[in-house]
Specification:
Elements: E1 13-15, H1 17-20, E2 27-34, H2 36-42, E3 47-48, E4 52-60, E5 65-78, E6 85-100, E7 120-121, E8 126-128, H3 130-140, H4 176-190
Parallel strand pairs: 6-7
Antiparallel strand pairs: 1-8, 2-4, 3-5, 4-5, 5-6
Bound molecules: zinc ion (2 copies).
One zinc ion (ZN) binds next to loops.
């Protein structure tokens, strides 16, 4: 595997003019480090709290470029059950095929670039992975967001966070096995123990 640094203008944007002139199988790899400030600009609905760190690999196919981006970042989410904020690591592993819009040798425009504008290499031979990273991040968000699988949520009666405290609102519905225990606790606390 040939591994070289890719010429880039900013994070996630790579000049692939050299790669496009190679035969199929030509490859470039690079480390990727996208700062939080730039990730925050991608999508207002996502609160990013760690840079995106990973690797990119660009592979020359017959006329197109296969781009693979692997890495991770961390976002801040709000639990759908208990409404507490929590951190969630987004693992990104995507592969997309990018289409040149200009023939790198002749300079002639290429009209057949596919339907997805995010996957078009521009007239300056710049391949931009910004939009596909944004889409992949949104698709990687958990639905619903839960601070943990077994989050107990809030009591619908008193609003207590049942992960942190119990309340007495729903004694009627309580599992009978626990009701017996609950009765013990109540009678115990009602009893005045001599010091
Ligand atoms: Zn929760
Ligand atoms: Zn309650």
């Amino acid at each position: 595997m040939v591994s070289t640094n890719l010429p880039h203008f900013s994070e996630l944007q790579y000049n692939v003019a050299g790669l496009l002139q190679e035969t199929a199988g030509g490859m470039r790899t690079a480390d990727v480090h996208v700062p939080i400030s730039r990730l925050d600009q991608l999508d207002e609905s996502v609160d990013v709290v760690a840079p995106f760190v990973g690797t990119v690999r660009l592979l020359k196919a017959s006329t197109n470029v296969l781009a693979r981006l692997v890495g991770e970042t961390t976002v801040r989410l709000t639990c759908a059950r208990c409404l507490e904020p929590f951190s969630y690591v987004l693992h990104i592993d995507l592969e997309e095929e990018f289409h040149p819009s200009v023939d790198v040798n002749s300079g002639a425009a290429i009209t057949d670039t596919g339907d997805d504008l995010a996957l078009v290499i521009n007239e300056h031979h710049v391949l931009d992975m910004t939009e596909i990273l944004r889409q992949a991040m949104l698709l990687s968000l958990p639905l619903p967001p839960l601070c943990r699988e077994d989050c107990l949520g809030l009591c619908p009666e008193c609003g207590a966070n049942l992960n942190e405290e119990s309340c007495n609102c729903q004694n009627d519905d309580i599992d009978p096995r626990w009701a017996a225990l609950n009765a013990l606790i109540v009678s115990d606390s009602d009893t005045n123990h001599p010091e």
